[in-house]
Amino acid sequence: MSPEKAQAYWKENIAMILKLLVVWFVVSFGCGIIFIEQLNSIEISGVKLGFWFAQQGAIYVFVILIFVYVKAMTSIDEKYGVHE
Amino acid sequence: MELQSLIYLFVGISFAIYIGIALWAKAGSTKDFYVAGGGVHPVANGMATAADWMSAASFISLAGIISFKGSDGGAYLMGWTGGYVLLAMLLAPYLRKFGKFTVPDFVGDRYYSDVARTVAVISVIFVSFTYVAGQMRGVGIVFSRFLQVDVNTGVIIGMAIVFFYSVLGGMKGITYTQVAQYVVMIFAYMIPAIFLSLQVTDTFLPQLGIFAQTTFEFNDGVRAIPEGTYLLHALDQSIADLGFAEYTQPGNLWNMFMLTTALMLGTAGLPHVIVRFFTVPTVKDARVSAGWALVFIAIMYTTISSVAAFSRVNLIKNVQNVEYKAFVNGELTHADGTPNDGRWFKTWEHGGLLAWNDKNGDGKIQYAAGAAFKGKPAFDGENVAEDGHRLTTNGVPAENNGKIENELYVDRDIMVLANPEIANLPNWVIAFIAAGGLAAALSTAAGLLLVIASAISHDLLGQVIFKDKTTGKSTLNEKSELMWARISAIVAICIAGYLGINPPGFVAQVVAFAFGLAAAAFFPTIILGVFDKRMNKEGAIAGILTGLIFTFGYIVYFVFLGGDKADYFLGIAPTGIGTIGTVLHLIVAFVVSRMTPEPPQEVQDLVESIRLPNNAGEAHDH
């Protein structure tokens, strides 16, 4: 593989990771900590939303994020022909 | 069947399975021993990673901690799961591509230096022993409760079992044993959780139980909260009545932020978790495997928050204002006619993890905010009061400002183990919990011991001490390296056992500290090794040392040398300081590397090749 192509692959990889890490940060540190009190004013069936994000919600999103990453990465790998 | 016979039966069967698997998957080569021959299916590897990583702390202690901390407990739940996102995206695929056995291997090769390798070996051993001490203690506690032996005997039984399968089977044996342990563990956690959820809220899925309404009138001793109140409302109201902060009320958000970060970075930097991603066939499998690991962890972790809330409700529901003597003799019933059998209370009281101090002399147990007495219970030998409760010799703290006086001491670590008994669940459920707790502690202990063993035999002996100066290769042949690996494992087990029997006195916090150290020592080194081509050996060594020494020093000063809380750096508690250690590591590594020569061309080529997922080396079949 040419160095330019490897560079482009790496750039695309980083851009995708950064996008996913923004989501990761928002659901955990954002919803579960920084804005927990604001979100707690919303209540569903007796459960405050900020509390729920910190104790359950963020975990569900983490799982989804990893599988989104695997899928996106696989398609980038195939695009650049570096898959196995 | 009697509870005790059921426990022997369940624990016996599960151990027979683990040992059977260890014999079946006996390691024949160093590659089998270190990374299971590199041919483990990603789903199986995910399950093994989950078991490896969910320790006695997760299984036994976490719901208890959250049960008493309430909202702030979210730091543990998010921290210990969010790290997998970092692991999957920033570490696992690249380490798999790198294709060697251990974290020091990566550090040594990427930073072309035996000094870096040695620093990494020492850090691995240090972090792993910090962590394993807590596990061995956990094993001892579970054995002592369920097999009715003392804690030290429990630790020795645990050592014997870990010895058997980790020394014989190595990583290959451990991986498949851990798959079995995961299955035992998850059933042991979910079944009582489902029972509790049905009992407290009529909801089958415990994850949804916290959204449900109570199935009973909840009398906290101050007022009766009617049936059909939302569970968390009932919990908030009742513990506020008893003088505690509301369960869902957040506390110190800054410290929660720091702790969450430290736990996330630590999870991604823990050597025994990282090494798992060397065991799958391809780079893609390493990514998928991290996802599966988190799925299996999430099943338990999303349940923990519910178990924590149920336990707190259950504790109040069952012990508040009950007459001690009738309670522990199993003579009480609830308003709806179901039994409220308090024999568990006596068991744990005798184990020393529960104590009652009848301050007002009314013969009834009162639970509220405040301490039942000064410090941890100091029992007056085996002396008991007229009604049979164990007497303590602690002094009584100041009055609780006219509010209800708390008379109950409950050790947080017993919540998960005692909960099924508190709720009067069937005996087989309680026996199952015993098997699950042991699976959790043993699987983590085994994984850590193996990492210690391979760090010593492979990295220290093979790559540094017995290295041929001219060829740069290890002079140990495979057979003698395998022998050294087994010897190291034996020595490591003995030290771990010693730490379990003579715990350094801080077991509850030890796991959080191990995460802080792992975060500060490893996470940045590996990340920079992949993402910053310019990073050189000077930067890496300076960074690791800065992170490790700062974090360790801070913990030692404030936890063990009696440093004053008022002097906390930016108000950060020692459990969260790993975050600052990591930042310092990054800064020092960056600055030092830019002031020193860039790494040699072949290392820069190595980094280029790690970044591409293809040609990761062939997978080995069993």
From TrEMBL, chain A:
Pfam families: DUF4212. The chain crosses the membrane at residues 20-39, 51-70. Residues 6-83 form the Sodium symporter small subunit domain. It comes from the Bacteria. Keywords: Membrane, Transmembrane, Transmembrane helix. InterPro entries: Na_symporter_ssu. This is Sodium symporter small subunit domain-containing protein. The lineage of its organism: Bacteria, Pseudomonadati, Campylobacterota, Epsilonproteobacteria, Campylobacterales.
From TrEMBL, chain B:
CDD domains: SLC5sbd_u4. Gene3D superfamilies: Sodium/glucose cotransporter. The keyword Transmembrane applies. It is a multi-pass membrane protein. PROSITE patterns: NA_SOLUT_SYMP_2, NA_SOLUT_SYMP_3. It holds the Pfam family SSF. It is found in: Membrane. One of its GO terms (cellular component) is plasma membrane. GO terms for molecular function: transmembrane transporter activity. One of its GO terms (biological process) is carboxylic acid transport. Keywords: Cell membrane, Membrane, Transmembrane, Transmembrane helix, Transport. The chain crosses the membrane at residues 6-25, 46-68, 74-95, 115-134, 146-167, 179-198, 256-278, 290-310, 428-461, 482-501, 507-528, 540-562, 568-592. It comes from the Bacteria. Belongs to the sodium:solute symporter (SSF) (TC 2.A.21) family. This is Cation acetate symporter. It comes from Candidatus Marinarcus aquaticus. The lineage of its organism: Bacteria, Pseudomonadati, Campylobacterota, Epsilonproteobacteria, Campylobacterales.
